[in-house]
Amino acid sequence: MSTQARRERERAEREQAIIATARDLALAEGWDAVTTRRLAGEIEYSQPVLYSHFKGKDAIMAAVAVEGFAELAVALASARMSAADPRQAVADVAAAYTDFAEQRPAIYDAMFTLIVDLPFASQDVPTDLARGFAELAETVRPFAGDGDLETFTETFWSGLHGLVTLMRSGRLRRTDHDRRLAVLVDRFSR
Amino acid sequence: MSTQARRERERAEREQAIIATARDLALAEGWDAVTTRRLAGEIEYSQPVLYSHFKGKDAIMAAVAVEGFAELAVALASARMSAADPRQAVADVAAAYTDFAEQRPAIYDAMFTLIVDLPFASQDVPTDLARGFAELAETVRPFAGDGDLETFTETFWSGLHGLVTLMRSGRLRRTDHDRRLAVLVDRFSR
DNA sequence: TCCATTTCCTAGCGATGCTAGATATGAGAG
DNA sequence: CTCTCATATCTAGCATCGCTAGGAAATGGA
């Protein structure tokens, strides 16, 4: 039975290689550069191998997105923990969020704009996505007032997401980002 | 010279037909359904004719987006004018914004997410885009405090844009939209 | 050593955006 | 009225995309 175990291990490694390669390629040159042919070439297998691991290109992007949710949750948690006071926590978490999106634009796109049908069947996504959301919720909790915390958090999140996406599409000047972020933080921490 | 005038007029009409057809097709079936072959078939010309009017498919989408900016500006202005008081104006304009995006998702996408290089060379875009932005600015002016109105407006705009895009990608439940909108309005009208 | 099963690749399909080269159209000169 | 030439338009095709069927190759067991 050791050979079967080895095969399964190698297969898992190859699957991880596909995700990592797709991720690196997307970060370096954008998702348009991530073609199935090129991806297959990078991992030194033929195209159909990709489809024995994933249903299609969207599924590969979704797998990259899943990793992104975990990363984002960690980044937000770190920012929240190390903040001196609740108000500073909002500012730090907001900055961590937009920094994540700025530094990994392709991954952020896969997480929130490109992939419509996320694998909600999978266990990982709701978990890590919920973890990130929970970090946001805990951060703004002191300022939610008597209203619904979830709604309050979702609205704050929308503000961050809007800043990120409008800036990337060139509708907002990058130079004023910090000031806009300060306004958003101010509005949601009073 | 009348024949030449007629030709130019017919050519302008055909260009408008291309834009209108692309717009209708995108609204009805999404931008993926707007292929150059199908678009050419709808206007009863061959594909290359499209390229004698526009540089490519992106340019056609940009033309649709330009019309969208004008529409949005009108909708926002109407909402702002008919509001009873400044605070209600913020609520009404915000609702008008998200309604526009909800009812014309394809056009909204062309305006703010799909097209990266908008024809800023053209005169129309900055004008109509600026008109819409100016409507937002006038709406929130009473609540901007002593800070920069432009930055304040941009941040408010980001909130609206984030609500719209996160809801469309399925990250936010549609049922709670009104409550999120109320939170956003509350944060930016106090 | 031979067979059966699994794994993988070659080759190809349909569709996309876009374009070069051939063809039709029509205005103006003789 | 006819011919010419420029303009307008189409037919056909290219390169590329995501994806897949069918056959070849490798692998494990008898």
Structure write-up:
Two copies of one chain form a homodimer. The first copy, chain A, is built from nine helices and no strands. With about 190 residues, the first copy, chain A, is mainly alpha-helical. Chain A has two domains: about 1-55, Homeodomain-like (Arc Repressor Mutant, subunit A, Orthogonal Bundle); about 55-190, Tetracycline Repressor, domain 2 (Orthogonal Bundle), CATH 1.10.357.10. Chains A and B meet through helix 8 and helix 9 of A and helix 8 and helix 9 of B. The structure holds a DNA duplex (30 and 30 nucleotides).
| The top level CATH class name of the largest domain in chain A | Mainly Alpha
CATH architecture call of the largest domain in chain A = Orthogonal Bundle
How is the CATH topology of the largest domain in chain A named? Answer: Tetracycline Repressor, domain 2
**How many β-strand runs of chain A?**
0
Structural class of chain A: mainly alpha
- The CATH H-level superfamily of the largest domain in chain A is Tetracycline Repressor, domain 2
* Oligomer state of the chains in this structure: homodimer
Poorly predicted tracts of residues of chain A = none
How many DSSP helices of chain A? 9
Radius of gyration of chain A: 19 Å
In this structure, how is the largest beta sheet of chain A organized?
A: none
Strand percentage of chain A lies at under 5%
The span between the termini of chain A is 62 Å
The total number of structural domains of chain A is 2
Element pattern of chain A in H and E: HHHHHHHHH
The global form of chain A is elongated
Most extensive interface between two protein chains, with residue counts: A-B, 31 and 31 residues
Q: How confident is the prediction overall: mean pLDDT of chain A?
A: 94
The helical percent of chain A reads over 70%
InterPro entries (chains A, B): Homeodomain-like_sf, HTH-type_TetR-like_transc_reg, HTH_TetR, MT1864/Rv1816-like_C, Tet_transcr_reg_TetR-rel_C_sf
Domain HTH tetR-type (chains A, B): 12-72
GO molecular function (chains A, B): DNA-binding transcription factor activity; transcription cis-regulatory region binding
Keywords (chains A, B): DNA-binding, Transcription, Transcription regulation
